[in-house]
Amino acid sequence: MAQLPEFLKTECLVGGRWVSANSGDRLDVLDPATGDVLASVPRMGAADTRDAIDKAQIAHEEWSSRTAADRADVLHRWAAAMRADADDLARLMTLEQGKPFSESLVEIEYAASFFSWFAEEGRRLYGDIIPPHRPDARILVTRNSLGVVGGITPWNFPSAMVTRKAAPALAAGNCMVLKPAEATPLSALAIAALGERVGVPPGVFNVVTGGREEAPSIGKALIDSPVVRKIGFTGSTAVGKQLMRDCASDLTKVSLELGGNAAFIVFDDADIDAALEGVQICKFRNAGQTCIAANRILVQESIHDKFVEALCARAQEIKVGHGLEQDTGQGPLIDARGLEKVERLVSDATEKGARIHIGGRPHGAGGTFFEPTVMTGITPAMDISHEEVFGPVAAITSFKDERSAIGMANDTPYGLAGYFYSRDVGRIFRVADALNTGIVGVNTGLISTEVAPFGGVKESGIGREGSKYGIEDWTELKYICLAGLEAAA
Ligand code: NAP
Q: What is the pLDDT of residues 414-446, one digit of tens each?
């Protein structure tokens, strides 16, 4: 049995107590690299979720009446605790999610940064004073917490997606009920345990775990509750659309960070080495299981062959293995469904004429490992150009000119991230303007930071997380009209 951090609890934190599911049922958490059972957590359902909502509602009165500075102190302590235990947290993440330990460490810092950042943003939730419409009045605008909010998070960034929601929500005075993904509840529970240690009051942050069978009833209990005023969701577009439909019934606010289909464009005036570095990060990080992964790599005709050859050389160097082994550059895919999807997309593309240069098969390590893969000749007829691959497959297409590259990049219902490499300053502004995405990376494949707004357009979502904008969605404006201020007689 793998060694887990001593502070990890494998029950759910509800109202400041570590509790099992009412049913007593439990869910095994697996190491995707080995299939070994790491631990088990409660399989909670609707009744457990309603209980967590009640506890959060009770906590909200006290938490929301604290000063922003008080709340900031708690969040800063939480960030410091995550940083102090970064190695343990990263090791846990690698065990349940599979990504290399070095990537887990980066994610833990990224996750902690949201507590640090939003601790301060909470102190700057300024209102407004508006010139009044009549002489005896004053108009004040304040930003207030919503109350109880729900967070639903995916498995690919098991810590950062939790704190990117919890940090702004709590900084603004809300209390949260969080439902982490079936595959990665331990990282969320570890964050909750550290929160308890640093003095997050009971009921302010609650975690309800469950499997994919329970997810719809947990989600419905959150949405149907008149007390829960917002759902912040990160996950697939299909589930996001369903949640939004459900939220319409009582107008629960919703923000959605959904799937992507990022184009990564390399123009012939680019610094090719920099573009190769960028695409390697952007494509093979987390075994390609990121919403902002380079899903379609578009390379200008004149440099196509050279670029493909150099990318193959880099991909061949990636060491595939357990994320805790030294030098591992790529871990397993999350589960058998993930592997089946990648295999289906690769075989559909090859049947329709794509060429595999390297990889293309499950890796010899077995389980859900897949070979780093480079393919060319991708066309719009292939499923791989429309669906998120969520695997280590670089799917390359060549293009003729700037206009056609932009047309190809925007030919998708998604609009999360887009990337391009060029050293022509005119082109940089033209293409950055033309890409129909919420995020554009120019001459970089690394765009995630707590200081910038993260989010998509079209079917990639609604709302932004991180940055000074990321706290607004967790607040409501209140307009106060102060009248009767007649001049003294
Ligand atoms: P998913 O299947 O949509 O699941 C996401 C979360 O929703 C999980 O906690 C899941 O629980 C839960 N869920 C599933 N069905 C639900 C329902 N009917 N009601 C309430 N909750 C429900 O997505 P995933 O496969 O975990 O994550 C991968 C997706 O997330 C990709 O599409 C990726 O692009 C996207 N993503 C987007 C961003 C972004 O910032 N835009 C960031 C990361 C990932 P279970 O795990 O228990 O099923």
A: 999 999 999 999 999 999 999 999 999 999 999
How do 12-14 and 17-19 pair as beta strands? Answer: antiparallel
Closest CA to 167 of 466, 448, 469, 475: 466
**Distance (Å, whole) CA 409 – CA 403:** 10
Nearest CA to ligand 1 atom 37: 258
Q: How far is Cα 28 from Cα 35, in angstroms, rounded to an integer? A: 11
Ligand 1: nearest atom to the Cα of 157: 43
Give the pLDDT band of residue 279 (cuts 50, 70, 90). very high
User: Which tokens belong to 359?
Assistant: 């990889």
Q: Which amino acid is at 40?
A: S
3-state helix, strand, coil in the chain (%, to 5): 40, 20, 35
Q: How far is the CA of 39 from the centre of ligand 1 (A)?
A: 22
Pocket of ligand 1 (CB under 6 A): 152-157, 161, 179, 181-182, 211-212, 215-216, 219, 234-236, 239, 242, 257-260, 291, 388, 416, 454, 456, 461
Residue 218 DSSP SS3:
helix
Q: From the candidates 257, 371, 450, 465, which is the catalytic residue?
A: 257
- Edge-to-edge strand ranges of the sheet holding 138-145: 128-130, 138-145, 475-482
SS3 380: coil
| C-alpha pair distances (Å), 354 with each of 316, 347, 381, 383 | 19, 9, 11, 12
Q: State the residue for tokens 């609707």.
A: 46
SS3 405: helix
Residue closest by Cα to atom 19 of ligand 1: 216
Cα–ligand 1 centroid distance for 480 (angstroms) = 39
Q: DSSP string covering 15-37, please? A: TTEEE--TT--EEEEE-TTT--E
The answer to whether the beta carbons of residues 161 and 234 sit under 8 Å apart is: yes
257 given a catalytic annotation: yes
Q: Note if 12 is an active site residue.
A: no
| For the CA of 219, the nearest atom of ligand 1 | 20
CA–centroid distance, 233 to ligand 1, in Å, is 8
Asked whether 169 and 232 are in contact (CB, 8 A), the reply is yes
Q: Which of 156, 152, 205, 147 is nearest to 179 (CA)?
A: 152
pLDDT by residue (tens digit) across 108-165? 999 999 999 999 999 999 999 999 999 999 999 999 999 999 999 999 999 999 999 9
Q: Each residue of 348-366: pLDDT tens digit?
A: 999 999 999 999 999 999 9
